[in-house]
Design a protein that fits this description.
The chain is of the alpha/beta class. The strands form five sheets. The protein has a ten-stranded mixed sheet, with helices on both faces. Strands 5, 10, 13 and 14 form a four-stranded mixed sheet that branches. Helix 16 packs across helix 17 (487-502). The radius of gyration is 26 Å and the shape is globular. It starts with 5 loop residues before the first strand and ends with a helix. The structure holds NADP nicotinamide-adenine-dinucleotide phosphate and magnesium ion. The site of magnesium ion has 4 residues, from helix 19. Magnesium ion (MG) binds next to helix 19.
């Protein structure tokens, strides 16, 4: 079957709720131009079900849509609108499995401690679903993220609230500085294609950790490790210092994206926090299957029946500095769930709030922000110091930081690759090529976290070319965020500098380490000027939350284009995630504060891409009208409100449909489209009061969509499309 013209992804949580209302509108409008809009299911629930066909009845089975999309993005026709999906932590995965089982899907339990071969096999299948399992498959291109002009202008005209920064703030960023991934990194560029194995030489012989990894010629291959002993000493030291300083303690990791390394580091922090308990009751905790990696929440659940241990935990907690809270009302701390506090969202929120985090007393306090690895911690450290010295940023006058990120073909997927290991015994880790060369080696101890990541040549060259094109198009100050003193970055510069020289544009670019680049970028936007941050994959992720949250109050409204290397287009809807808190609010009071502006921006780009790729003039008319509608939403303040009883996501979709129809009716490039949409625009305007009334009447009571991870389509549609009048107009046959 031929692919639809546009593929819209079926995802999780808030964006999936929003799709139930928005997608019928998109399909109706696209149909007028004979453009088909299909869906592919990349939700966590869908991905789980696709992994266990043998456990399901024929009508319950679904194909592996993620694998299909992974092929589609390698074709020039690809045109995919990608919404945010859950990058599952273990607690989320377990919850999704339980829900599906409850709905009658006979999938196996998640084996926490797999013993039999069958359990190990089940666990291996579930493990492929953990963390960032989707984006690396779809991102067959590099990333271009920026605030659309209309969005930036709106933010300047309507500046959001920013917390005050003062010079005496005790908030600071703490990182190891030695014995971490940054300091132990080694890197090399492969002259020829190679296959590699990773082995551990130890007292008992040689253990093969991974075999048969193949790299094309020109790949940059890194290896590094974090010392577990150094990490523990650092964590203990920072807990003690925090207590002395009288601030909150917080840990900021990316346990979703860096799905192997970061839960382990998180587990070290839980164990350091409860060190006296682990010292005294270590064996007992082991028997109970408590590791710390799943967080304090799971730990407390598992030991809840052990009153002696619970009392010991209470005593330690009382002695520790106050923890930064995820939800002080519910007693959920920073250390409860590894995926609750995610560095790229948590650090900008704290910085925007003037360096304040929420404490157990429900009040804001200065906070020590622990970011163990020093590779990117300087970005946050420098930002904190900059605002301490200069005061908060003024969003009314600040310029913008755009981003060009290297990410194609799993470039720099630190800590998530199947080449990250918790070292089982003291020894030497060696990375050995098929010709016998030892490419990298490290002396390690049991418990150290060792990882290798790779970056291919073609994506690097494509990224530099994109940077040259964007610099030329904008004339903005353009900075490669690369640190000559860091092993990996030095190898990348081995590509970057010759390309810039060969194209005669070296004088148009600056090259700076992350700390210096952060300062230069903050200075530039403070002056009201703009800059392009040309970064690797992790900084792409971090910066496209940090700067948008400071400039626009949210990263959800970013234009996020992936120029696929084979010619297709992948249009991501903003840089934010799937906003679980929004789902809770919908369930409690039927108000959805999710803002679909990211979807509107991506949709406009998708139509325009279709127009260019297929020389489809109607697609261009639709795309231009989407842009006008998006502008209308901003200019007329039709974005969702946060409070129940006020307009929400569904209202914004009504206005989007109306402005879109009005723009189509008003344009003169395509008379047939104008003729078709004039009566729709009129009907939407005439029935405004009725529609808004019906949407408002739906709010204020609990809403049931038949599931959290796997909604019931009919119930979901009933909740998200409560206006019969609007549905009548949208669903009417042309
Ligand atoms: P998040 O979903 O971005 O949510 C953090 C907060 O950002 C939300 O609570 C909300 O603030 C605000 N927000 C984000 N998108 C919004 C939108 N469209 N409209 C209005 N507000 C928006 O980040 P998270 O809690 O760290 O991550 C949640 C899940 O998303 C995780 O499973 C994560 O792995 C996944 N994720 C996926 C992607 C992706 O697929 N590209 C990217 C990032 C994260 P308020 O609550 O104040 O309204
Ligand atoms: Mg991010």
């Amino acid at each position: 079957m031929a692919n639809p013209d546009i593929i819209y992804t079926k995802v999780d949580e808030a964006p999936e709720l929003a799709s139930a209302s928005l997608l019928p509108i998109i399909r109706r409008f696209a149909a007028a131009a004979d453009i088909s809009v299909g869906t592919k299911d990349i939700s966590l629930a869908g991905r789980i079900l696709a992994k266990f066909p043998e456990a399901l009845s024929a009508d319950q089975r679904i194909d592996d849509h993620l694998a299909e999309l992974g092929e589609t993005v390698k074709t020039p026709e690809a045109n995919v609108v990608k919404l945010p999906n859950i990058s599952a932590s273990v607690p989320q995965l377990v919850a999704a499995i339980r829900e599906l089982q409850g709905q009658g899907y006979a999938i196996p339990d998640y084996p926490e401690n797999p013993a039999t071969d069958a359990e190990k096999e089940t666990r291996a299948r579930y493990d492929t679903l953990k963390g960032s399992a989707v984006n690396p498959v779809l991102r067959e291109g590099n990333s271009d993220r920026r605030a659309a002009t209309a969005v930036k202008k709106f933010a300047q005209d309507n500046p959001h609230r920013m917390g005050d920064w003062t010079a005496d703030s005790k908030t600071r960023v703490a990182s190891m500085g030695k014995n971490d991934f940054r300091s132990n990194e080694v890197s090399a560029t492969l002259a020829k294609a190679a296959t590699a194995k990773i082995v551990l030489d130890h007292a008992g012989g040689e253990t093969v950790l991974k075999d048969g990894i193949s790299y094309p010629a020109g790949t940059v291959v890194d290896a590094t490790f974090m010392s577990a002993k150094a990490l523990d000493a650092f964590l203990m030291d920072e807990i003690n210092k925090t207590k002395a300083e009288g601030t909150l303690f917080s840990l900021h990791m990316k346990a979703t994206m860096m799905k192997v390394s970061d839960p382990i580091i998180f587990g070290h922090a839980v164990k350091a926090w409860l060190a006296p308990v682990f010292e005294k009751y270590g064996d007992k905790l082991n028997d109970l299957g408590v590791s710390g990696n799943a967080g304090l929440g799971t730990l407390l659940e598992k030991v809840s029946g052990e009153s002696e241990i619970m009392a010991a935990i209470d005593a330690v907690m009382a002695d520790r500095p106050p923890l930064y809270m995820v939800d002080s009302d519910k007693g959920i701390t920073n250390l409860h769930v590894p995926s609750d506090v995610i560095i790229d969202a948590s650090m900008p929120a704290l910085i925007r709030a003037g360096g304040k985090g929420w404490g157990p007393d429900g009040k804001e306090h200065d906070t020590v922000c622990v970011i163990p690895d020093d590779s990117y911690a300087p970005v946050y450290d420098e930002t904190v110091e900059f605002f301490k010295a200069n005061g908060k940023l003024n969003p009314a006058t600040a310029g913008t930081v755009q981003n060009l990120g290297l990410m194609a073909q799993k470039a720099e997927e630190y800590g998530s690759h199947p080449t990250t290991f918790e070292i089982p015994a003291d020894g030497t880790v060696k990375m050995i090529l098929d010709d016998g060369t030892v490419l990298h080696q490290h002396t390690v101890e049991k418990g150290d976290i060792w990882r290798s990541a790779s970056t291919r040549k073609a994506p690097i060259e494509d990224w530099v070319d994109l940077a040259i094109a964007r610099q030329k198009a904008t004339g903005f100050r353009s900075i490669f965020w690369l640190d000559e003193t860091r092993a990996h970055d030095a190898e990348l510069l081995g590509y970057v500098k010759p390309i810039l020289d060969a194209k005669g544009v070296a004088d148009k670019f600056e090259i700076m380490a992350p700390r210096e680049a952060t300062r230069a970028s903050l200075e530039t936007i403070t002056k009201g000027e703009n800059t392009i941050a040309i970064t690797g994959n992790v900084l792409r992720d971090y910066l496209t939350d940090l700067f948008p949250i400071l400039e626009l109050a949210t990263s959800a409204k970013m234009l996020s284009i992936v120029k696929l290397m084979q010619g297709g287009g992948l249009f991501e809807t903003g840089a934010g995630g799937s906003a679980p808190k929004h789902v809770q609010q919908l369930q409690a009071e039927n108000h959805l504060r999710w803002d679909s502006l990211g979807e509107f921006c991506a949709l406009g780009e998708s139509f325009k891409f279709l127009a260019d790729a297929q020389d489809n003039a109607k697609a261009r008319v639709l795309g231009d009208a989407v842009e006008a509608a998006t502008q209308g939403i901003l200019d007329n303040d039709r974005s969702p409100s946060r409070k129940v009883g006020e307009p929400d996501n569904r209202d914004s979709h009504y206005w989007f449909a109306r402005y879109w129809a009005e723009a189509l009716a008003a344009q003169t490039d395509d008379a047939a489209l104008a003729g078709e949409f004039a009566p729709i625009a009129a009907a939407l305007a005439e029935n405004e009061a009725a529609i808004i009334g019906e949407l408002a009447a739906a709010q204020g009571k609990p809403a049931d969509t038949g599931g959290y991870y796997n909604n019931d389509p009919a119930k979901l549609s009933a909740v998200m499309r409560p206006s019969a009048t609007l549905n009548g107009i949208i669903d009417a046959q042309a």
